[in-house]
Design a protein that fits this description.
single chain, about 220 residues, alpha/beta, Rossmann fold, five-stranded parallel β-sheet, globular, binds adenosine monophosphate
């Protein structure tokens, strides 16, 4: 497998984080999640965390200038020969443009963008059943992907929580935010011939199979 540089696009709750984690375990990719990064900053009470917190609670995007710098810095720290997956970034056109510019100057352009697709009713069921680990970022679902022991992270034994922004009222705002600000990125990457669609509505294992197939076809240069 080549050292592919990938973006996982798709509405919240479509399983991007779960699939990014599975691919990083399977192929040794580095996965960078902007949401996990911001939650870690918020928990630590850093300047970035304090700037981001209110937006996150409301289900709105944090300003581009707050997230773009930290994500580009995070990418710059990844060893040049390593494959990576960006999960949750970019989420606006200015972020996508800043990412392109940053990667072009490092001669590490994006190889492919996977767009995880699912209808809104299922997204709401998935997100409201989601339980997350604040320590390692792993996510589970009480209905679709339960942890081995109730409410305990399989990976690091931390007690799982329901994220405040995974409650239904905030999820509706997050979906609107996605449609208005992030969905235009589908056309942006389509125009650059980078987009692959993944049906995200099946079981986690089915979606993993579809994700691996998409990544393998990118690897073959298709
Ligand atoms: P996520 O875990 O990806 O659903 O992200 C949780 C929250 O973090 C989002 O609802 C936003 O408030 C914020 N966030 C994550 N990534 C970004 C981004 N690329 N741009 C702006 N806000 C973001």
């Amino acid at each position: 497998m080549r050292a592919l540089r990938l973006i996982f696009l798709g509405a919240p709750g479509t399983g991007k984080g779960t699939q990014a984690k599975r691919l990083s375990d399977r192929f040794g990719f580095d996965a960078l999640s902007s949401g996990h990064l911001l939650r870690t900053e918020a928990a630590a009470g850093s300047e970035i965390g304090r700037k981001a917190e209110g937006y996150m609670k409301a289900g709105e995007l944090v300003p581009d200038e707050v997230i773009t710098g930290v994500m580009l810095a995070g990418i710059a720290q990844l060893p040049g020969e390593r494959a990576f997956i960006l999960d949750g970034f970019p989420r606006t056109l200015p972020q996508a443009e800043a990412l392109d510019a940053g990667l072009a100057s490092a001669d590490r352009p994006i190889d492919g963008v996977l767009d995880f697709q699912m209808d809104d009713a299922l997204i709401i069921r998935r997100i409201t059943g989601r339980r997350s680990c604040n320590r390692c970022g792993a996510t589970y679902n009480i209905e679709f992907l339960p942890p081995k022991a109730a409410d305990i992270c399989d990976e690091c034994s931390e007690r799982l929580i329901q994220r405040a922004d995974d409650r239904e009222d905030v999820v509706v705002t997050r979906l609107e935010t996605y449609r208005e600000q992030t969905a235009p990125l589908v056309a942006y990457y389509q125009e650059r011939d980078l987009l692959q669609t993944v049906d995200a509505s099946g079981s986690a294992d089915e979606v993993t199979a579809a994700t691996v197939a998409a990544v393998e076809s990118l690897d073959r240069g298709e």
